[in-house]
Amino acid sequence: MGESKMVARLQRSFFSLIAIVTGLIGPMMIICAGRAERMEISLAAPPCPGDYAPGIVLVGLRSDTSHAQRNSLLSRWTVAADMPVIGVAAIHAPVGMECAVLETLQQDPRVAFAELDYAAHATDVFIPNDPDWPRQWGPTQIGAPSAWTVTTGTASIVIAIVDSGIRLNHEDLAANLWNNPGETPGNGIDDDGNGQVDDTWGWHFYHQWAWNGEEYTYMPAENNQVADDNGHGSHVAGIAGAGIDNETGIAGIAGNARLMTVKVLDEYGSGWYSDIAQGIIYAVDNGARVINLSLGGRESSQTLQEAMNYAHTHGVLTVAAAGNRDTTDGYDAVLYPAACEHVLAVAATDRDDLRPSFSNHGPQVDVAAPGVEIYSTWYRGNYFTRSGTSMAAPHVSGLAALIWSARPHLSASRVGGIITTTTFDVNSGTLQLPGWDEYIGWGRIDAARALAETIQTPLPKYHYLPLILRRRATPICLEPPPCVGLWTK
Ligand SMILES: [Ca+2]
Ligand SMILES: [Ca+2]
Ligand SMILES: [Ca+2]
Ligand SMILES: [Ca+2]
User: Fold this and answer.
1) For domain 133-454, which architecture applies?
2) Does residue 158 contact residue 220 with C-beta atoms inside 8 Å?
3) Ligand nearest to the CA of 361
4) Homologous superfamily of 3-118
């Protein structure tokens, strides 16, 4: 195109554009603050639909536009970002007038295209339909909606809630409870031969005191009554595994995994190390992949350590609360079993990713998770808000169950490694604690990053036997590694 023809065309276009614009405007008109040219834009145009940056329009110039023509056009606008190598500039437009500016630009012969600056999101998210979802800040804080596009958990992955029991008929828990497939309930027979009679939902390890007229004697006891009489266990259970996207209550982190009810705490929320150790052994022997321990005591214990070792050697991941500072004497070291070896010790963080002062600290802390004002299921059949490292731990247990739901063949140490290496070190900046520290460990867990890391691991090409665990079973491996965590009868 010759220079004279180009000029003539530009002039025609310019005058016809003015005619179009003046035909639309009347009294409702603004004059764009231009430098070399003035441009009138109609206020009558409706706002554009869609999710776009307010006050920004992207304009692409024709490849045959000269440098001078480009400068001339852009000089009418305030340029927000210039990308000359691809011939695109982002220009400011009056907010609410983006569409009118688009129309104006599209009629300029120097313009190849003009478009809105649409929003892009890092990844798809899964927003559950549970009505109390807006009351839950924890899952969003750890990126669970993104992780849920990979998996919301599977029924083959069992999380044992070793705690005060679970409200068995809670509307948002009942469908997610593990039940012992080999046990016929209520017939007074130990159908599956695991040593516990009628252990349909789990088992209750407890103690009682026998009075002989002179002194009390400690007597271990047990039964199949695992209903929650304290509240703590039901709350913890809901955080890890309340039904997700079931139009009921809240969304658990692994809302399609299964919850095994192992009762070791009484109605006051207390229990003995021996009960806890037996509960851990039961959970391991009966198929749990993750054991949540939102409990703790000050004294170290070889019995507890042996129970943790038992879980570890059987490929089961144990997750424990670091503990809450004792308000009576200020004791704030990490409690046991969180302080044991082979346990993920979990501290708490709040909505601002800050560690609350109640969260115990020490060299054993591995990670942190939401633990302040957490809304979850409650033992009276309702919902309740509670704070504590007890609430933080089940966020981690839920995440472990999600990882295993996506890649069931991973070893427990690999799952623990994914959780710790994909954290956000949220106190590295303002509090100047870069890297691991004794308050939040490696950082606040992030389910989105953890699941992204998980699915990098290829699915195994070889075939596994179903992941059925039997009491005192021996690990077998069908094919070369990994075989940790696989058992059959
Ligand atoms: Ca049984
Ligand atoms: Ca039975
Ligand atoms: Ca729900
Ligand atoms: Ca840190």
Assistant:
1) 3-Layer(aba) Sandwich (3.40)
2) no
3) 4
4) Peptidase S8 propeptide/proteinase inhibitor I9 (3.30.70.80)
